[in-house]
Design goal:
Length: 144
């Protein structure tokens, strides 16, 4: 990756932090009204991880950091352990959701459970159909 791509990725992550801060009240009212502390912890954990990643960008100048965690904008390939089948999701903001194309909100039940997970991590997703064991097989960042 060249300097322009790194700069674009960095800019994307900065925009994420701004968007989350600007929409804090709306997200709390819509998704976390019963537990404001839950969203505050969720936001702080995500913001801290993004800031850590931005620090890596700053240190490595032209070299892209590997992005071994799921962030907003990540395309995640999951392996369903029982079926041995894969599926891809792109974690996005609520206004970008398109389930037919695999775009799921970071606030959705599955999206929120994948956020900040690591490559090769095994996760038990709690879904309406019951617990589902998956492994995170690939994480790529879609810099749309």
């Amino acid at each position: 990756m060249n300097h322009n791509v790194c700069h674009s990725l960095r800019e994307n992550f900065v925009k994420q932090l701004v968007y989350l801060e600007e929409n804090y009240a709306s997200f709390v009212d819509s998704y976390f009204a019963s537990d404001i502390n839950e969203y505050t912890q969720f936001f702080n954990r995500y913001a801290s991880s993004v800031q850590d990643l931005l620090g890596i960008f700053d240190q490595e100048s032209d070299l892209p950091p590997s992005i071994p965690q799921v962030f907003i904008g990540s395309q995640v390939t999951l392996l369903y352990e029982e079926e041995q089948e894969t599926e891809q999701f792109t974690i996005c903001f609520p206004n970008q959701v398109n389930p037919d194309e695999g775009y799921i909100s970071f606030l959705s039940p599955v999206g929120s459970q994948l956020l900040l997970r690591s490559l090769r991590e095994k996760v038990v997703l709690l879904t309406p159909g019951g617990p589902t064991k998956v492994s995170i097989e690939e994480i790529t960042f879609k810099n749309d």
